[in-house]
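Provenance and format

Records in this collection were gathered into a single text stream. Each protein contributes a sequence line and a token line. The two records reproduced below are adjacent in the stream.
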Amino acid sequence: MQPQDFEKVVSPASVAHYSQYKLTSLMLKRLEDLGFHVSSSKESDSLALDSVVARQILMGHECVGIDANKESVTAAVSFLKGGKHMKRNIQCSILVGADGAGSAVRRLTEIEMRGERDLQKLISVHFMSRELGEYLINSRPGMLFFIFNTGGIGVLVAHDLLQGEFVLQIPYYPPQQSLSDFSPEMCKKLIFNLVGHELSDLDVADIKPWVMHAEVAEKFMCCENRVMLAGDATHRFPPAGGFGMNTGIQDAHNLAWKIAALLQGSANSSILNTYETERRPIALFNTSLSIQNFRAAMSVPSALGLDPTVANSVHRFINNTVGSMLPTGLQKAILDNVFALGRAQLSESLLNESNPLGYQRLGRLKSIFEGGKSLQLQFPAEDLGFRYLEGAIVSDNESEVGDSEVPSGRRRDYVPCAEPGSRLPHMYVRILSDSTREVVSTLDLVSIEKVEFLLIISPLQESYELARATFKVAKENKANVKVCVVWPSSRDDGVARESKSALAPWENYVDVMEVKKQSGEEASWWSICKMSERGSILVRPDQHIAWRVKSAVTLDPTLHMRDVFSIILGKQ
């Protein structure tokens, strides 16, 4: 990560690298703050089988059955009570399976995954060593280390250098190799080989096998839209670029407001169809990009003479052809010899500039790095710039053609835009409607407390008329809307920047002023959006633009906004 990655130019939040289990703890704490009760396994044991489970997080429960009809869903869950497996039925309106890559909900609803399976099997070793952390901080700080030497091969993820927390990913080839081969002692020896010396404080915390896939669910919902999948349950990517976590968060962001709008009565049930319509194309695109990025990373060992496809081909040969008839010990010996031969390519006697072959390989390696053709870790254009082309949005004829380029795995900068389906651009504004005159991002103007649309306008008479019409139509639809009036920073004519009288009798509005950039450039909200100040933007509760008009609405604003809300809320 470079210093410019933390400048918060295109977002009020900067990039972060954070362990999932720490994130889980933060989310559980947030749920408790919101009034949920997190039940430990022991507390869950004491709950009556027919007890109400509303606003409870039941730890230690597993979904083992789903019965859905037109009216509701009943989830059968299994848990331990007094050392015995018990079952409890939980009835609900909608069931969301956000239960990970091995989703029980996906399996029970028989939703298939499509894509590339079994790209690589790996062993994940979670370990602690402050000694290693201190060495890396002082000598070669980084977040991700690909280690290739004659003693071993692995990818080291530095989750926390200060605390000395790491995860090592090691290639794994069952059945010739078994999990028992990777004992804590064996993993310690491998870590010492990869690091180059012994670590006095090395502590192996956990060892787990996993399989890398690149797949997307054939559908994201079933059972008449009462059962849905989200996160890793719907897409499994190679861990190359953080797409799994980011795409999963986007799923939840997209789905939450639609369920809430349905339950509060402002939207029709058909709004749930837009979840799959919007999210599945993004998941497919990110799958392609993560595969490209994974293969770009593999170009490095290939350049060193360690073509990963060779080891995988030998492994498939042993498992699927006459090799499977050989004694187990001989199969393992063949694999070990292939791996040893591969690691021998990394010896200093071969890999140096005096050796013609080594010189050629080092030159190829240099070309990969200097050309930016290896693994990329940041994708702002995809993480922030993804856009929904159809769904709960009103398309216009002025939108540019969607970005359909083939993923390259090379970093591109994110360029904000205000086209329907895009995320609301970030710009700092000063709130004029309260005494604090706080500076916030335009993204912060979208409520996180309730399902509320945001209409952004300029302080013009025709825009105020549109705003009053929007308030009226939103009320007709039992929907909430807030109006944001953006005052230009350049205007200093003594006129009060207050919209109360212009919007009366409606009161849910906020007056804000553009904040100039420190460089002295004029910060214009409408220029960022590539629109004139006569335009208007309607933002969904998930911060994506639902509708916009580049200039004033020429038709009756009330009739026009009725059409807009009808489309967005699934009533048309």
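Adjacent record:
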Amino acid sequence: MEEKHMQSVLISLLRKDNVCLWMEPFSSDHHKIQELAHKYVAATEFTLEEVISTLESIRADTSRKDEGNKQFKETAVASLQLHLPKTAEVLMHSKRKVHLQTKLDITVQELKKRISEFWIKTLQFFLRKILSPGKRLDEQNVKNNSKIMVLVLSSEQVKNELREEEEKKRQQDEGLQRTHKGFQILSERDGSEDPTTTPFLEIADQKGNPLQIPDSERKALILAMGLHEKGRALMKKRNHSAALSHLVQADEQFNKCNSALLNTVDNYAVLQLDVVWCYQALQQLDCLNDARQRLERAEECFKRCYGEQQSRLQQIKGHTGGEDVLFLRLYLLQSLLAYFDGNKNQALNKFKIVEDLYGQLCLDPEKMGLLMTLGFSEQDARLGLRACRGDVVAAERLISQRKKEKKELKEQEREKRRRRLQDINTLVELGFSKRDAAKALHQTRGDVDKAYGVLLDGAEAQHSNRQKKLDELLEMGFQVDMADSALRIMGDDVVQATQMLLDNQGVVPPDLLSPSPPSSSSEEPSTSSDSTASGSSRLDEDLVSEVLEDIPRHEEDYLDVTLDEEKELMVQIRSYLEKQSSSSG
């Protein structure tokens, strides 16, 4: 990390002075590098030796990349940077990083063979994940200038660890697929199913009122929010690798939504924060540029959603203290990125804001205990106190008001479902199917009279359409009862009904007109089909139940953090900044 920090500081100075180390005179004159180093020692806390070494490293890397890019364009031969294990130092002249030139259309196994010619044979390759030996490099996102970690499989213990890693990755991918499928099922439900038996998700505002948004965006938004919640659940377990996979998928779904919609809710901003939080937890320093852009998007989104000085948030909710935990993480991550970017002053300034916020957000245990003795949960007490900035009386009043509003919302939802079921039954009594009635009510936003009109129009159109098909068959000379039966059996498909009648001299086979006696040959297809459909339905419901478990019961769960992880990162950043200050002093 210190090496990365030194590189960032010096690269920033080089850009400021518009110095290109890979060009003359620096590319061939070592004394020019030394002169530059003497200049930069005064502007940094590093020693002369460290500055010279880092400048030489930057020059070598940029020159190599420049030449490699030209070569890749001309010959499609890529340059890969292999990070070798410590056991390879003697064999590789004490170099831990080796550059290898190769085409990307070869398999990992072929790459392994090439390295084995001058090194050791038991190798494993990583590029954020284990590379599959049988697949090509370019199929696994290996690109020109990619950095690949090489591991030696020299013991059974290492092999077992790698097998466990592969199994963990397999389970992670499977979990992501299950989550995606479960929320996809929910996103495709349109509210036309039986409200007493089928879960249906609605997008609501902060007061619980449903928002009217286009169907395609509604599906993407439900999928995005569902994947986000699953990612947050994994973050709470500190499984940041699996969490990141879900969060990235959520980001893709959010980007399918209208930007105007994203500007009115803070979910998108919170997602950006969560992605970067996973980056730092996994120490993925190669994601710095992406992290910086995500934090900028998060800050802009918070400003639009909450208003200047959080005025809009105050107007909507009546308080703003709870959202301070989001800004604590934002400024904490900004301080970390500023440090790695070599911007010492910005890192210090952001960190001072973090320390102030942390002091405000740390709660008095006695106040927490007092609220919990009144019957409130630890989560309610924590959220209430933070929202009211430590005022116990105001927190008690706020929590009680929230519970009252939540109870009223549940009663309204229960009454809404009761009325919907009553309206469905009314339409069923008029001769329509339960599913058609539910669909019509959903289409007309619960207006029974309009739904009845929609159903009548549909029934008339269906009858008229069928009559036309029947007339076609009658014009061909078929008897009315046989034509009607053929259409019914073939699902109103005129072509198939015609073919059936032609194949059987104008009559419908008797075995199709009445049920056949039970037999294995006649019942097996039907039983198999029913079993498959039933199994598929059960699987769908299992997936839905599984993903619904990850949706928190409290609407402000995303604001409820213990600050344990934040404290750990604060200690880490403070040590960086103190070390930097002592070095410069």
